[in-house]
Write a structure and sequence with these properties.
globular, 10 strands, binds zinc ion, 40% strand, Metal Binding Protein, Guanine Nucleotide Exchange Factor, Chain A, mainly beta, three-stranded antiparallel beta sheet
Amino acid sequence: MMKVNYEGGCFCGAVRYAFKGGNIPCADCHCTMCRRTSGAPYVSWLVVPVNDFSYTRGVPKQLQSSADGTRFFCSDCGTHVACTNKTHPEIVDITLGSMDTPEAFTPTFSVFEDTRLPFVTTVSGKR
Ligand SMILES: [Zn+2]
Ligand SMILES: [Zn+2]
């Protein structure tokens, strides 16, 4: 498959990243940590092979948000751009909303639906 290059970054532009996209899964996460760290009802994530991803400008600040999870965000504007988990070091999760072209992807499944807010309809239409 031909690999396309995607780019994104934080609101202020201090942190920029790029990744090669082939078949990149995209999922909505309804967990309470995503909700609290983003301030949004849920967060859409891209699941990118860590070897296809790199920061092209700046160094994000890190927050260890759970025993295994670390979140990466701009220390100037606060935009969350990435999350890693020790249980699957081969991938890095990228926030869809920080991409330059978020419309290039569509979430196809959701996780942590047990903590989903009642007014949010899932990608499968569950309410
Ligand atoms: Zn920033
Ligand atoms: Zn989450």
